[in-house]
Amino acid sequence: MNLTAPIFTDADKAREHLEATRWPHGPICPHCGVIDEATALKGSAHRAGLYQCNACREQFTITVGTVFERSKVPLNKWLLATYLMSSSKKGISAHQVGRTLGVTYKTAWFMCHRIREAMAEANPAPMGGEGKTVEADESVVGGKEKNKRLSKRNAKNIGAVGKQVVFTLVERSGRARSFHVANVSGKTLRPLLVKHVDRKSALMTDDAGQYRPVGKEFASHETVNHGIEEYVRGNAHSNTVEGFFSLLKRGVVGTFHHVSEAHLARYLAEFDFRYSNRIALGINDTMRTDELLRGIGGKRLTYRRTGEAAHA
Ligand SMILES: [Zn+2]
To answer: Could you tell me the distance, in angstroms and rounded to a whole number, from the CA of residue 64 to the centre of ligand 1?
Structure first.
């Protein structure tokens, strides 16, 4: 797949691709949930891609109930934006998306945020498990200082200088999950660890004190002391999560320049999504884009709760 593919230039081809991806077993009625019990409404009186459910008699198209709903932007442009975002390792700015799609910056900005919403995991299962290792680490993004590790002292000053704290879990050879947190105390991090990491996992962290009590709740807990440049000691390292942070920071600094506190969680969902569906796991750009298209449904309510109007 490349940028000249018909699904990126032709709205009908884009719709057919979206239908094939989201409805592999036939149309799914977004009103009553019934599968493959709909009639395609054909003829000049109906817009292309309109279906009527034989069970509840409601009408729908492939975009009803998705983050693409109620948009005047043609579907081929939505698919192109989705492809650009899922294939750009360090992210792509809304300005660049706007120029590539031929839409205004404002429209591109809303599209990018909706696509980020589709990247968020809907019901995330715990990571890790028996025989698996999950690395946990925290970092700061934003502000002028780059790549500085988070000591307790600068963690306290974060609010004052526009920096934000990110806490990330990475399963080795697996997914990443990141959180925007207020601070790095055990009280803040423990609930995230026990909710998102299977207790049968081996936990790997730096040797900061906040991880010691919660570490006992996992199958094992090993630490790396970054303070004395001890980054790798056999299997005890946090290189995996460090690699994730390095990509995130290059994206935040190089592509987005500034990420506001209000939107940070959305950017984290974007970087988590690409990392969790990366080429090293056998997922290429086309597969990653289709995975994203399968995630566009069922998230519209979350979007509405953010208080943004459907401008795109
Ligand atoms: Zn129905």
So the answer is: 12
- C-alpha 46 – ligand 1 centre gap (Å): 18
Name the pTM for this structure: 0.86
Measured in Å, residue 55 CA sits from the centre of ligand 1 at 5
In a domain, 279, yes or no: no
27 CA to centre of ligand 1 in angstroms: 10
Q: Which residues of the chain have pLDDT under 50?
A: 145-148, 155-160, 300-312
In this structure, the answer to whether residues 193 and 108 fall within a common structural domain is: no
Total domains in the chain come to: 2
> What SS3 class is residue 226?
helix
- The string over 226-257, giving b where at least 16 C-beta atoms fall within 10 Å of a residue's C-beta and e elsewhere, is eeeeeeeeeebbbebbbebbebbbebbbebbe
Q: What is the CATH number of the domain that holds 213?
A: 3.30.420
